[in-house]
Amino acid sequence: MTENPQAPNSGPDPAANEASGTGGERVIGTPTGGTAGPTGMTADAPQESTPSSAHEGPYPPEETHLRTEEEQRRGERIAALWFVIAFLAGVGFIVSYFLFPPGPDGPAVGDPSTGQIANIAMGGTLTVALFAIGAGMTVWVRRVIPHYEVASPYDELPSDEQEKSSFGEFFMRGANESGFTRRPLMRRTLFAAMLPLGVAPIVLLRDTGPLPGDILKQTMWEDGMHMVVEGTSRRIRAEDLATPGGMITALPENPEDPEHPVSLNDQSKTVIILIKMRPDDFDSEMTEEQLGWTHNGIIAYSKICTHVGCPAALYEPTTHRILCPCHQSTFDAANAAKVVFGPAHRPLPILPIRVDDEGYLVAAGDFSSPVGPTFWDAERDNYLAERED
Amino acid sequence: MSTQPPKALASAGNYLDDRFHLAKTGEKNLRKVFPNHWSFMLGEIALYSFIILIITGVFLSIWFKPSMQEVIYDGAYTRLQGVEMSEAYASTLYIMFEVRGGNLIRQIHHWAALIFVGALVAHMLRVFFTGSFRKPRELNWLIGVLIFIVAILEGLFGYSLPDDMPSGMGVRILQGVLLSLPVIGPHLSFFLFGGEFPGEDIISRLYLLHILVLPGILLALITAHIFILWHQKHTQYPGPRRTEKQVVGSPMYPAFAVKGGAFFFFTFAVIAGMSAIIQVNPIHLFGPFTPTSITSGLQPDWYMGFMEGSLRIFPDWFDFQVAGYAIPTGVLIPALVIPGILFTGLAVWPFLEQWITGDKRHHNVADRPRNAPVRTGLGVAGIVFYGVLWAAGANDVIAETFSISLYHTTYFFRVTLILGPILGFIITKRICLGLQRRDRETLEHGYESGVIQQLPGGRFIEVHQPSSAETVDTLRAKDEPVPAPDDTTDDQGIPNPKRSGLRGRLWLALNHWYTKDNVPVSHVEPGAHHHADHGAAGTNSGREGPRHR
Prior knowledge:
EC number (chain B): 7.1.1.8
Oligomer: heterodimer
Order of helices and strands of chain B: HHEHEEHHHHHHEHHHEEHHHHEEHHHHH
Domain Cytochrome b/b6 C-terminal region profile (chain B): 239-434
Shape of chain A: flat
Strand order of the largest sheet of chain A: 4-5-6-7-12
Number of strands of chain A: 14
Distance between the termini of chain B: 61 Å
Transmembrane segments (chain B): 45-64, 110-129, 141-161, 173-194, 206-230, 251-278, 325-352, 372-391, 411-428
Subcellular location (chain B): Membrane
Strand order of the largest sheet of chain B: 1-4
Number of helices of chain B: 21
Low-confidence stretches of chain A: 1-52
Number of helices of chain A: 8
Structural class of chain A: alpha+beta
Membrane topology (chain B): Multi-pass membrane protein
Number of strands of chain B: 8
Strand content of chain B: 5-15%
Mean pLDDT of chain B: 91
Structural class of chain B: mainly alpha
Radius of gyration of chain A: 39 Å
């Protein structure tokens, strides 16, 4: 606490202190007229603002810039005015709560426009109340409480060598005496005993869900399954897609309950977009097998983007491009949904389709590849099949 | 006025002191000094927003039902009546349309979250650019980085709870990212979601994380952050009497307590005011989540924007397979590696800088950003990198607003992501050095008074006035970098074994890179040149002055 304030790069310049009218040379930490606080508050602030006689404040007078009595009185009145405003606004908040009682048709705030008014009324009064308290307190600080320029020493952080070595010695004596260092059998078996218990909570997490197995690779689509327009239970006929450029989002018909859609889990795997193309629009790169999955220029792609799983919902008929609005992966609908731009890597899986005896579009099997974001073994089966060829 | 506490207060104090021995600690802590500077209030905003988040969060959880049970809505909001939705979404509608003030609380919660992360980032940048993370405060910086990461997750999970369309899509993206992880991806996804996406568990699990686990961690980290700050005391900006040995500012009691209280109310007032008049996340307009539909122009909360941008502009060019097993780098790199680099970079910087400069001293006086040009340049490069990713998260909105081709915005951001930070670094470093030169000039000549004088010889000069003591103190407080001596060989030409390895040479190169650019002021006599004799050269002092290095 007797550090020299002119430490390298940090001390105030003595000349500067002289210029601003302070004592200058005094060493920090030495008391000035008995004003240093019990915790070692130090003081060498400008002294012109406060007379040191009869000072009753908690900090040394040269660090305390008192407000004049007149200023304090004015401050008190202004702060009080703010607090009155806050009080009234607070009352206003409670009043505005009860201004919107539920009516016979339900809550008044159920109507969006009334709800908006209620929101503004309650929010507005709350805002005024909070702001006014803040404003009143600010006036209090700036007009009534003195302005302080209190200096306080930074603690010397590292302990001195003696304390450190004393601690180190004490610690090691304790460790030795406890036998922890000297009795390895006990120590090691204790560590061994902790190990399974540490793993136990992780083991308990095992039942948070089933193992993936091959679930991600299959969907409920199977040969002969009808498709319905998403959001309805209306089956789709090939003629519904008569004009090239048309697109329909479709789901499988719920085999257990045709009136209701399949579960959300199934929806997120089975949803398809049916796109009608002119048969000669298909790219020559498409294989015979892929063309065989289409019906009369109608091709069915999984709607779930292979990047991270958003619905690839935008289709531009003139360029045959399917765009995912999340991250803009772009697929060529005329070329087996090959990726033409963006972060996706795999093409959208194709759902083989055909028409049944009644003219309805039905699936002719499951998707050509796993649906959705690419996962670890999504392409493994394909790889193995290619190696066998 | 009496200096004896009133009897009731004294007996309450004695009651506590009898049990906790508080008098001495209490006084010491009430005397804690807070340096006065506006930038110290950024962290306060974050703290106060966090308090507001807890208060409003408790209220929301009174009515919110974290359930994915499908229900047919028949609540007060007529436009969605009869629509099938999860209970989570329906109960959120209930809070908005059937609980008086519910919508206000929800909006306060959402705005406070946005401001929490924003203030936290601003606070972090302040600490970075002023070097306030330096010894002894490195560990508190690490805690701060952890708070940042947990806050982002906390925000993401909270955003997901209402189960509206955009939030469900956010969860979908999260699941897609999980799936992309090599080997364990599908397992992790199945364990988190209780099976396939979306399953029936994810909302209640995110709810658990959002209202218990992560806030608990945040509370613990924030408490530790403040305790450490309290124990080590604040840094301060250079100025009169402000040294490495003592801190100057307002004491906790009575001044700062009232100031801080006022600032809490102001923060709350601003957030409440925004919530009163600015709609945020109107989930009733988005509709419930279905995995099959989406709308274009979707934007996440701002702090997720950089992830979104990262996912958008990173191409699929580096995807590969190992024996048929997919390594989708088009997901892994933008979603995990790039944020990983950002956060790891933040976390290790104090230690890296200390290693480069070899500076093991304690620092309590903050750097002015210009006085650490390389650090400031790197910080700006980081901001540009983050900012480009963030803007790229809105590339579709940008493309539509300015009628630019969508793909062109993507190409633009890909190039800017690499060039922008480099340019940002170079320009910032130049500006810093320019400011350093001006500082030295101010120190040498004082400031330009704006008074033009004609000398007897007919020449015009601008009169310089001596700088104030405060300015001189501030400028002299500069902590000059000291380049390490080039000791690859000793004076006999014998190679120094410590500098011969790759590590030694790398260290020397980095050290020189970090320290070489500096406009020294330590030898400058303040005001040495502001007398009339210098006035004669005054007209070109601006160019002629401190050029020598």
